[in-house]
Design brief:
Two copies of one chain form a homodimer.
Chain A: H1 5-12, H2 16-24, H3 31-44, H4 50-57, E1 62-67, H5 73-88, E2 92-97, E3 120-124, H6 130-137, E4 143-146, E5 154-158, H7 160-173, E6 179-183, H8 194-208, E7 218-220, H9 225-238, E8 244-247, H10 250-262, E9 272-277, E10 288-291, H11 294-309, E11 317-320, E12 323-325
Parallel strand pairs in A: 1-2, 1-3, 3-4, 4-5, 5-11, 6-7, 6-8, 8-9, 9-10
Antiparallel strand pairs in A: 10-12
Helix pairs in contact in A: 1-2, 1-3, 2-3, 5-11, 7-8, 9-10
Chain A binds a DNA duplex (16 and 16 nucleotides) through helix 2 and helix 4.
DNA sequence: CTGTTAGCGCTTTCAC
DNA sequence: GTGAAAGCGCTAACAG
């Protein structure tokens, strides 16, 4: 059962070098030889030892996938798409999560554990500090960022500002003037992070519409349901004149809807809510949102990464489209 | 930057064998030597090449995680928990997804790709055929099944029958008599699969209560929202006398709630709905459910697998508790 | 407690 | 188009 390349070579009556070439589809092997070797290999149930192959070739056929979570809509879908694309090219996905804690620092991304272990790195929505990016770059393998990444790197993402403007403008067109924004973590202030970009998009849409943007309209929801629920409860209690809330993610928008329900506010009659994502379960509450295709971003990013690994070139920034999906959580501003 | 064990050995003034021992914390190394070697290694930024180490030792410090999806609540949470536990022991998680298609066969689990690549395998909610299990066992590494697994294997799971009975009995106590069940895929009929067990639990609870279980009460929801929504739409249209639906997962229960809404039925006034899982977003619609802790099952399974890899022994079956969470989608049977 | 040495199972020149 | 042989960078006996 546990055959090595020598067994195949012996049975096929060729050298191990030829077996290696034949099985990997390299040129300079006679078609007849190739077919014969493959037949023998499959009959013997042979497949090369990944460690031995990696050690000898320096390539691992493995991609490191770095992500803060997997149990969040965006991350799960990106990773699922990426894994599918990688597998289609016979690459493995090595999963590394880095839990983000509210306000606190997360475990540093340690490049050492990825050394000689992966041929490329996919960073999924992880707001890396500049020095972490530098460390990763030091690994000397291609890196693709999905959802969030520093300028100068290969990025697959949305036009976050535009998405935020789209959401905000939708609310403004409905007549809302006191529109709050639920953003992520207070520590997440890298200028290129989606949270920051969405914040900027909201602010500029407000300002252009001649609406003031006082500090109290901006609160932190930590990109999850409970975080947004808590913070929105406080917000809506302290500022009952707020008629609409734009959350930077659908999960946070769901938290806002729950908060409204907790407070006995009707959505959208008393307060309108919009998010960003196009979460599968938004439908449950008729959540209005600016939708994106997360799985496809994962596929694209993985495909690009494989191109890079193969020595190809890919566009620096790939911007995915978004579309406004109007459902039932947004409506006209209440008359009071 | 790319130092090898020889560099460390030379700088530290010892042999490579000593470096290897010191860095891995093996016995028979003088404490002073150990500290010195570690200091030199960290100063040089050295870490062993995983391929070389694997090739020489036969161990990979990697666990293969097999799962049908990652963007489903149960799977995402189990995998997240497992990854966390593995990382805590410096093990890597290699992700392999095997998409399940409605009614159709999925890609066969191919043991060859895992050969000499992993020290253990975690099978998450994947209903493997007997021959696939046999193939995996042939890899000669420990395997732990989470959520669903054949008898005779190491399992971490719920008492699925009990969970189903709990859900069904809750509805019966509320006075319901025509209680439908939304199960998974028609092809998923392995006697030990959670779908099958839950089906049996529902049936026996019905029978014990003296309620008939005609075929039309059992429909397939494919374990996802759209599948259950479609099938429940048909079900509730054709059989308006059904007053309650027990879905084998929360995601399917959500589909049923959506179907009810599509049909203008009020939940729970016209139809009660209950699921199994304790999905984070069940709160959104006040979903009544029989809750389980998926992440913790992932942690436990990974921990057990690491024990097995280390040569330890673990219990054959670990059964996690469930608890009935009554919210707003179940209520008294309507009076007509 | 530490060093020497022989592999681990492939890939990759370099000849032929 | 094919083979011989030299590594790839470690670990694991085995000595000492």
């Amino acid at each position: 059962m546990a055959h090595g390349i020598e067994d195949v070579a012996r049975v096929a009556g060729v050298s191990t070098a030829t077996v290696s070439r034949a099985l990997r589809g390299l040129p300079n092997v006679a078609p007849a030889t190739r077919d014969h070797v493959r037949e023998v290999a499959s009959r013997l149930g042979y497949s090369a030892s990944p460690s031995a192959a990696s050690l000898a070739s320096g390539r691992t056929r493995t991609i490191g996938v770095l992500s803060p979570w997997i149990s969040h809509w965006f991350f799960a879908n990106v990773i699922e798409g990426a894994e599918r694309a990688l597998r289609a090219s016979d690459f493995d996905a090595l999963l590394h999560t880095f839990e983000l804690f509210r306000g606190g620092p997360r475990r540093r991304v340690d490049p050492v554990v990825l050394r000689r272990r992966v041929d490329g790195i996919l960073v999924v929505g992880l707001p890396l500090a500049a020095d972490e990016v530098a460390d990763l770059s030091g690994l000397d393998v291609p890196i693709v960022f999905v959802g969030s990444g520093p300028p100068g790197q290969i990025l697959v993402r949305l036009d976050d500002r535009l998405a935020a403007r789209t959401a905000t403008e939708h609310l403004i067109e409905l007549g809302h003037r006191r529109i709050a924004h639920v953003t992520g973590d207070p520590g997440d202030v890298l200028p290129w992070s989606p949270a920051e970009e969405r914040l900027v998009g909201w602010r500029s849409a407000m300002t252009e519409a001649g609406l003031p943007v006082p500090d109290e309209l901006e609160v932190h929801g930590y990109f999850d349901v409970p975080g947004a629920r808590e913070t929105a409860t406080r917000l809506l209690t302290q500022h009952p004149d707020i008629t609409a809330v734009f959350a930077a993610s659908d999960e946070m928008a769901m938290g806002v809807v729950l908060a409204a329900a907790d407070l006995g506010l009707r959505v959208p009659q008393d307060v309108s809510v919009i998010g960003i994502d196009g979460h599968d379960l938004g439908d449950l509450i008729g959540l209005t949102t600016v939708a994106q295709d997360a799985a496809e971003q994962g596929v694209r990013a993985a495909t690009m990464l494989l191109d890079l690994v193969a020595g190809g070139v890919v566009p620096q920034v790939t911007t995915f489209p978004t579309r406004l999906v109007i459902r039932r959580t947004t409506g006209a501003v209440p008359v009071r």
